[in-house]
Structure formats: structure tokens, C-alpha cells
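Open question from group meeting: does this chain pack into something compact, or does most of it stay loose? Before anyone orders reagents, we agreed to write out a predicted structure and look at it together. Recording both the input and the output here so the notebook holds the full record.
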Amino acid sequence: MTGRSTDGGDLENVLVEVKNGIGTITLNRPEKLNAFAGRMRDDAALAVEQLASDPAVRVLVLTGAGRAFSAGADVAYMRDLLANDDTDGFTALVESGRAVVTRIRATPKPVIASVNGPAAGGGANLALACDIRVASDRASIGQTFNRIGLHPDWGGTYFLPRLVGQSKALELIFTGEMVGATEALRIGLFDRVVPHDELASATTTLAALLAAKPPLALALAKRAIYQSLDGTMDEVLDRELAHQLECFSSDDTREGLRAFLEKREPRFRGTQ
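C-alpha cells returned:
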């Protein structure tokens, strides 16, 4: 199964759609629960990069086809790597996943994970790399790596403690258990949980809301939030001032102030 990238090239097991300012990336290997194989990781990273640079796209959505978000890496493929003692191949496997999550974090646009089903191992951390996670009530998420003797990758040891705290992160990693949607919402792994049949519409509604916001203000806020995790309060305050000044001189701020005073909805055009 192939998709079409925004520049017209073929993508392997990845579908890309752009509509009304929303760029949607669908992992499209449903018969294997969207486990990553072949070029799929590289193509997912390429799709994120292309949508991030597309001026017609204000928000990215990442989801899976079929009944799973993503089962992570293809275990049969890893078995073959091990049988051939292919350390270089295994390194490339992990590094290609790294490229996906780093590009998600680097894009200045909001990225929403629409978690339609199980997200396991690398698939879990792919969801955690996104800025917001909207999940089906049938979804689940888990750090299943040690079930096959492996260590978390794709940013799991970075994202988890920042979302749930260190001890809870260790519990999730140590047990390797899948966490259901209700519990994932309670501990902060999911941000919203909706009935399964409403997931697509709930995701689109949120994405459309964000797409109507001023892109520069959202991009700078995303950068500030993630940089604040490792900064002092003074550094954060300095960054907030710099970002405010950048927004203050933008056309979108002028439009926002005019619209507020004229008691109408603003029409932000983007000044990135």
C-alpha cells in the first residue's frame, strides 16, 4: 500500500491528505496493526517534514488505519536482524524512528495524535511525541519493549517522565502493560478520550480550531513550552518577552486587536 507525498512522490504505507489547513498523516499497514517496516519510518518522517513546510497546512494530525494506531516496530523484521547479527540494521531501525519524533517536535505547527486503537512500543512513543493526544475509548497505550527484552526508544524515556513523573514512568516501563483509555486520560498520557465513532470528528473539530489561530503565536508558544522544561524561570521570562515582541509586530496581532474592538471573529493569515 502506498500513499502520495505532497510533492507527488510515492510513500510506503503512509497516506497524506491536506484539507482546510489540516494535514493528515495516516499510517497505512492495517493488516500488521501499522507496525513499521521497510521505508515506512523514513516516509513518515518525510511526510511530517513536507507538511511542516507547506504554507497551506496549519495543523498536523497523525493517525492509523484500521483498528490500531501503531504496534511499533515489526517484530518479525527485528527477529531477522537478530538472526543475521545485523547491528547496523538495528541501529538504522532505531535512528529512523528518532527522525520521526524529532521532526514532530521540531515543526512549529501543532501536531495532534488521533489514537484510534492500541499504541504500543515505538507506536506509543510516536503518539507521545505529538503535542496533543485525542483518543478513542477503544485505544490503549503501553511501553511494551521489555516483553521482547528491549529498552524503550523513540523518546520514551524523555516523554514519559515529563508527562507522568519519574516513578510512574518507571512503573509503566517496568511492567510493560498496556494502559486503557480511561486510565491513560487520568494519568496524562491522553488529553481527551471520546467515543470511538466520534474520534474522527472530534479530532477534526480540534484541528480546525487550532488552524484558525495565529500560526506565529502557536509556534512560539510550542517552542517556549518545550524549552521551559530545561530552563530557569528567568530564562523562561526572557523568552516570553522575546516572543511577545515578535508577535506584537505581526500582522496577526494587528488583526486580533482590530477584531476584538470591532466585536468580530479574527481572520488570522499567518506571518511565519
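Observations to bring back to the group:
The radius of gyration is 19 Å.
The chain has a mean pLDDT of 91.
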